[in-house]
Fold this sequence. Notes:
By secondary structure, the protein is of the alpha+beta class. The chain is 32% helix and 29% strand.
Amino acid sequence: MRTILWDDSFRRALKRLVRKKPRIQPKVTAILLALEADPFKPSLKTHKLQGELKNLWACSVDYDCRIVFAFEPVEEAEEDAIVLIDIGSHDEVY
């Protein structure tokens, strides 16, 4: 299982998103648990980003909601940590 680290920008974006769409909170929680267990689970639709975001990855929460994250090495750990960077609609995060 990988470690998930929350960036401050992700915390702010999640708070904004939940304020606009309170019903999305349980879905985000389930996606984060799945991401922690296996970031490449097919249902997450994890994909590498390009352009200005070329070192980042994204996964789907629902039709128009994405989580942007990065893999960061952790000393003395077998797997990289997942650093959550942003969450929001397709247009907001890309």
